[in-house]
Amino acid sequence: MTRHIADKQKAATSARLRRFLQLERTHRDEGDHPAARALTRRPRKGSAPSGSLARLKQYLRIERGHDA
To answer: Could you tell me which of 51, 53, 34 has the C-alpha nearest to residue 42?
Structure first.
């Protein structure tokens, strides 16, 4: 019985993965760029943490089967 055309073994590591790992190892100590850090730490516009929590509570109440 012959192999199917799609039956191919994939290489354990590709050149792209090796390059990514190499960059990760060499630049690990540098950390994030300051601009990226500032963007992730600033609050988003229009997000209401208390509103999100209230919505979550409502979803959980409905999921538990409590109507009203």
So the answer is: 34
